[in-house]
Request: fold
Amino acid sequence: GAGVSQTPSNKVTEKGKYVELRCDPISGHTALYWYRQSLGQGPEFLIYFQGTGAADDSGLPNDRFFAVRPEGSVSTLKIQRTERGDSAVYLCASSLLGAGGPDEQFFGPGTRLTVL
Amino acid sequence: TQLLEQSPQFLSIQEGENLTVYCNSSSVFSSLQWYRQEPGEGPVLLVTVVTGGEVKKLKRLTFQFGDARKDSSLHITAAQPGDTGLYLCAGEGAGGTSYGKLTFGQGTILTVHP
Reply:
């Protein structure tokens, strides 16, 4: 049984460039979450999908960040005009239901983004 | 603003010692979860506590949820080098927010020396 996978594992880019980070959730999980973890900190919530729709995007820091999940499975986090402050590990998680009560989230290994 | 305050941030102890990690908040959570994270990996769920006053045990680990559902603690008995890692508490459903959105503490880096 495959877990949550994320690609790439590492991404180095230059300030001002556009990046896409991909998340493949566990098959059959309807809910998908994106978090950002800076060095020495706990993960910070970005956005949560229930199926294809964003159920809560209150954690996206600004309009440079956007995420999609067009078919209710794979999700892509897109960051435009990257800034050095965007450097962090971006974690994706999925869960079976995502609503109505505590539901275990399974995390991927993350994508380490470095903006030079 | 950090909704969940976790302490201590760093803990370095000898094998066989006991330790407690605390997670405190001014917000009420519907549930609180404890995770462990290894370098280069995502967090892995250890336990979820839901009821105020609830105590759960997982081998040498004891988790407690405060009566008011605002705080929690993780106690490890007779720590072993294999317990080394980053321990995170996370609250769900704070202040009526939706399930799914986890609010994490800043984490406790535990090092157990042989």
In short: The interface with chain B takes residues 4, 31, 33, 35, 40-45, 48, 50, 55-56, 58-59, 91, 93, 95, 98-110 of chain A (CB under 8 Å). The CA atoms of residues 46 and 66 of chain A lie 10 Å apart. The first strand of chain A starts at residue 5 and ends at 7.
